[in-house]
Design goal:
The structure is a single chain. The chain is mainly alpha-helical and about 260 residues long. It has helices at about 5-15, 20-35, 40-55, 60-75, 80-90, 90-105, 105-160, 170-205, 210-215, 220-240, 245-255, 260-265. Helix content is about 80%, strand content about 0%.
Length: about 260
């Protein structure tokens, strides 16, 4: 692998972590265009790097990936293979599709399938965010309402009459205000911890199997399972179109996407 100083490694790390779907699609399309015009893979990557950097006269984020791919093609062994390099830059399922294309000799089709897969995943993520807008907005509104109630409304009303004499809705509001005063911070911390644990459990919680199987029937684990199932089917379709057998497709998915294969098995 190429030698880099700390600032260069940091810059590549940032580019790698921010290499989002629109940038990946742009990279796939540019590479596919050159390969369709009968350019060898290494030559196509070098031409892309030279175009983006004006033949080395300026820096471009896409050139980082192109350079890594060129180096991996030059060494082509172990952790310096193209498949491994791609798995560091792009999601594992997209790396699996491109890897299948390299192995089957149909990388042009694989890049097209990777683009389709990226677009489909973006549509799934957009649908999820649209579903999450209402509960998140409701939570924000409730938090704001409790803040105003506790800092503005209750203190003003307590100047008019003693809170001990309040009943009905007003008494409930006062009790809620007291609860927020005494336990609001604790509840906020517990909510953050529970949210973090749930987020961690979605891709990582595997055992005991019976408990995870039960959890997969309720939200949010059921939503995660549906997303993984849809992603799995999209990947299988892409790999089969890349002229891979069913067994080889499953082996490639297991190689690149062990968590996804387990959750959809």
């Amino acid at each position: 692998m190429r030698e880099m100083n700390f600032s260069q490694r940091l810059r590549r790390f940032i580019v790698r972590k921010t290499f989002s779907a629109p940038y990946r699609v742009q990279f796939y399309e540019a590479l596919r265009f050159l390969l369709e015009n009968k350019q060898p893979l290494k030559t196509a990557l070098e031409q892309m790097r030279d175009a983006w950097t004006d033949f080395g006269r300026k820096w471009h984020p896409f050139a980082e990936l192109a350079t890594d791919c060129i180096e991996s093609l030059r060494e082509n062994s172990g952790e310096n293979s193209l498949e491994y390099t791609l798995s560091l830059w792009v999601p594992q399922e997209e790396a699996a599709v491109i890897s299948a294309g390299i192995r089957s000799g149909s990388i042009v089709d694989a890049l097209q399938f990777a683009t389709t897969l990226t677009d489909a995943k973006e549509q799934i993520h957009q649908a999820i965010w649209q579903m999450a807008i209402y509960p998140v907005g409701l939570l924000i509104m409730m938090t704001g309402t409790l803040y105003v109630l506790n800092t503005e409304l209750i203190p003003e009303l307590s100047k008019i009459s003693s809170p001990d004499s309040w009943s009905g809705a007003l008494g409930f509001l006062y009790g809620l205000s007291v609860f927020v005063d005494n336990y609001g911070a604790i509840c906020a911390v517990l909510f953050a911890v529970i949210t973090g644990l749930i987020s961690w459990s979605l891709p990582n919680w595997k055992s005991p199997d019976s408990v995870r199987t039960f959890a997969d029937k309720i939200m949010p684990w059921s939503i995660y399972q549906d997303i993984q199932g849809a992603t799995f089917l999209l990947n299988m379709a892409a790999l089969l179109k890349a002229k891979m057998t069913t067994l080889n497709s499953l082996n490639i998915l297991q190689e690149f996407c062990i968590t996804m294969v387990k959750h959809t098995s």
